[in-house]
Amino acid sequence: MNLSTNTIKTYLTDQKYTVPADETYSHIDEWLEWYQNDVKKFHHYKLYNGSIMTEQERYKLGMAKKICEDWANLLLNEKVAIKAGSYDKQLSMILSKNNFFVKGNQLVELAFALGTGAFVEYKDADDAVVIDYIRADMIYPLAWDNGKITECAFGTYQTMNGKEYIYLQIHRLGKEDGEDPDMYYIENKYVDAKSGKEVEPPEEIEEYVATGSVEPLFQIITPTICNNIEMDSPLGISVYANAIDQVKGCDLTFDSYMNEFVLGRKRIMVPLSQAKMQMQQDGVTAPTFDPHDTVYYMIPEDRSGSNQLTEIDMKIRATEHELGIQRCLDLLSFKAGMGTGRYKFENGSVKTATEVISDKSDLYQSRQRHCISISAAILNMVRIISFLDTGATVDATVDFDDSIIEDSNATIDKNIKLVQAGLRSKLSAIMEINKCSEAEAKKELKRIAEEGQITGQDIDWTGGDGNESESDDDPPEEDDEKDGSGTDADQDSEKDNPEDKG
Questions:
Q1: What's the CA gap between 264 and 292, in Å, rounded?
Q2: Of the residues 62, 111, 391, 493, which has the fewest C-beta atoms closer than 10 A?
Q3: Are 320 and 327 in contact (CB under 8 A)?
């Protein structure tokens, strides 16, 4: 358990807060080491070379972080649309000021690495809505019901006057001093990061804030997988918590692969008698061979006095190692919920598959499950943002990026065919293609109709063949005349072949 965890837990316990003895916290440090790609007890080891113990460090693929990056990009990327009706413009401005799509993506990455993350909203001294992004080791549940955290303490590091402090926000329901039991209040505390002692907060920070809200001003996000470390814990677990062996396998095979090239370098064994010493003009002796040249290696002569230079050129087992690394990547990808085939080891590096995800694949099903947690957190966050900003809550919708599941061009083609076949209305097609509400789709359909009137054309946006109406309008009399005996084609034929008249 790291220093900040001990400091915060000790302070909360001293202040008579009920802090659960959660076994999950003891694993967060391990998950963090794998995320940071430097696990002391695994990546650093000693090896006996026949004479002394030598310090060694493994080569690393860094797949723990890579998996979390991919999950964050699959769930909260720039294509995710958060819409709140008439509050859209103001919401977009607040999210932009809080750098939401960058910081939110990073929070999802950290939450999938460490098991838990949180959005925390409040108003600063300038009366602006602020969103904090809190990682797992700074989240301390104080009360929860059926796995949902209702009261919580959040910590963030701050530096003032060259000293480091932990700023604690304690969100609780009003249960003391006659407070409304259904309303939330916030206690703001500052703790010295080294001593753990409470200090006076800055002048602009109020120690006690009544929020006036019946909803918590925080939202918890976790991977939607069960915590099998502490069954009753409200905290989540890392997406690779049960795949540590597979992460080790990736690093072990990659380390062996890299050492295959390091240890398999070409060598020329040179007898000592061949490595003659020559006298320089200044009287200093030097070996014939450059001592910094790693190709040559000097050895004593054998009993037979052989003076032959022996070349050692070991065969590199690249193919076998690449196959082993690929198997380890497939196992890790499967254990992390991404199915097999997500990663390809090519040309010495790991590449992510770019093909469209099938809606029956393991990755698609895992993603849909994780979307439940992320969507609920975002919707509740929007409600609190609007409450802090206007005093009223608004409902919103979240549209995740489905282009990875179904190609957008395929969606358009599908809707065109359904509309042409009379199996779907243009309104429904516009709603699916543009991912918009019915009201927005009606406005779009009206604009399309108006543009058709302006140009004087009956535009069929579904791509139907415009020549069909022209052929249907041809009078039957004209067809009969063309089919008569005196056609232009027949007359031309007679002119070209006068001999046939006889």
A1: 18
A2: 391
A3: no
